[in-house]
Specification:
This protein is mostly helical. The protein has one domain. It contains one helix and no strands. It is rod-shaped and about 55 Å long. It starts with a helix and ends in a 5-residue tail after the last helix. InterPro entries: Trnsprt_adja_ssu-like (IPR049820). Keywords: Membrane, Transmembrane, Transmembrane helix.
């Protein structure tokens, strides 16, 4: 039971990290595209 609870608690930081990496990749891609087009990101 302790192992299951530990796995449950530790999976959330891994999920959040995966989501943040996905968002970060998309942002970097948008910045590169904006620079190529010569327009500001904001």
């Amino acid at each position: 039971m302790t192992a299951l609870l530990t796995a449950y608690v530790l999976m959330w930081p891994v999920l959040v990290l995966g989501i943040l990496i996905t968002i970060g990749r998309g942002f970097v891609k948008d910045v590169k595209k904006a620079r190529e087009e010569g327009r500001p990101v904001i």
